[in-house]
Specification:
With 134 residues, the protein is an alpha+beta fold. It has one domain: RutC-like (60s Ribosomal Protein L30, Chain: A). 22% of the residues lie in helices and 25% in strands. It has two helices and six strands; from the N terminus they run βββαβαββ. Strands 1-2-3-6-4-5 form a six-stranded mixed sheet, covered by helices on one side. The two termini are 28 Å apart.
């Protein structure tokens, strides 16, 4: 084990998991921010499957932008995204929203995976993202 490397640092933001859930919404390791986002209600920040794919995708990307800002980064520094969708038909709507958030090259490296379901009730999208700190 390399003991000289910097420890992981929790990113502090308004988006948090319930205290009983041993998951961090975002961590910094070295110069990289690691985060996972599901659609959350903008008032309570509880996972929410409310709305169609465009509503849910906008929530996810708004949250991603917020968490990255709290970590000293931004959407312009996102290196990789893995998107999970529960319906292949949602890809077009998600891509319309995605294009509003990622407007300049280089665009993030991205994989889109269709899955049977996600843990959040009625959630249609989940993302895993890695970004460099600004």
């Amino acid at each position: 084990m390399n003991t000289s490397s910097a420890p992981l640092e929790l990113v502090r933001s308004k988006i948090v998991n319930p205290p009983s859930t041993p998951i961090s919404n975002a961590l910094i390791g070295g110069n990289t921010v690691y985060t996972v986002q599901v659609p959350r209600d903008p008032a309570s920040f509880a996972a929410s499957g409310e709305g169609d794919i465009e509503v849910q995708a906008a929530r996810v990307f708004d949250q991603l932008a917020h968490v990255l800002e709290c970590a000293g980064s931004s959407l312009a520094h996102v290196a990789q995204i893995t998107l999970y969708l529960v319906d292949k038909a949602d890809a077009a709507g998600m891509n319309r929203v995605y294009a509003r958030y990622f407007t300049t090259t280089p665009y993030p490296n991205r994989a889109t995976v269709v899955v049977k379901e996600l843990l959040g009730e009625n959630c249609r999208i989940e993302i895993v993202a890695q970004a460099l700190r600004a």
